[in-house]
């Protein structure tokens, strides 16, 4: 079942236990919104509570979950940052609290919806409490959402608004937002208004309305370098400086991008799938997809030398008065002259 369907069912058929694994601003907000709607507005102060385990105890949350709703039929208790489900070091959760949670999971209160948010890449499945929670709760795994599922959700959402979107516009929208669903949904509101006459979102509309972040501009800069467009890259770098972008920040983002390209190249040679790479490197699957396409003609040693050169530029930018434009121009020219 698609994640959107599971979340929709919170409103119509709420379950007593939910476990939300991973992080996604958009889906987390959707889940919390659906949970709030389960409780009438006038009852939320008493019957809707959130407990951040970085600030409070698991015991307090459990006491609330076991309490009878105050002048209402239902109570919602949300537990945030459940680090006790992982091997991470966080605020200590006592053995008695974990035993109490395990007991609660075996016999949850029928009047309470208990939701546990674990915004982590993976849980410690060796722990008894983790096994029990996974067994008894409705699982919402945000880590398992694929790029394809996100794309289909966006397309379906656009269709429900009685709009269409060009294929190239979808690609550009994802590129400019780095596949961040929360950003995509915000940008769509502007695009709907701009394209209200024809009800077709075009790539030109995306180019006009969806601003590129500094990160996206630097990705485009690296694209030019990798495509051998040296003069274009140098001109683009000059434009970024004219826009008052910080040379150290630009270089840091270039370093980050070339580090990712190098990592993807190495993992490719070890037969890793793009989905596994995204989990290992903790980046959005869209970035892995683009990186895989960009590095096809480059060797590991080529990317290693380029990354090392960017590290050296960072050192010079921080420790000398060398002109940043000159440093980048030398890097771009040397990069284009290397053998792949």
From TrEMBL:
Presence of keyword Cytoplasm: no
Name listed for the protein in its UniProt record: DNA polymerase III subunit delta
Single GO molecular function: DNA-directed DNA polymerase activity
InterPro entries according to UniProt: DNA_pol3_clamp-load_cplx_C, DNA_pol3_delta-like_C, DNA_pol3_delta_N, DNA_polIII_delta, P-loop_NTPase
Organism per entry: Fructilactobacillus cliffordii
Catalytic activity: DNA(n) + a 2'-deoxyribonucleoside 5'-triphosphate = DNA(n+1) + diphosphate
Record bears the keyword Transferase: yes
Keywords: DNA replication, DNA-directed DNA polymerase, Nucleotidyltransferase, Transferase
Gene Ontology CC entries for this record: DNA polymerase III complex
Family per record: Belongs to the DNA polymerase HolA subunit family.
Enzyme class, first EC level, given as a word: transferase
Superkingdom as given in the UniProt entry: Bacteria
Domain DNA polymerase III delta subunit-like C-terminal: 216-335
Domain DNA polymerase III delta N-terminal, residue spans: 18-141
EC number assigned by the record: 2.7.7.7
Any one Gene Ontology BP term: DNA-templated DNA replication
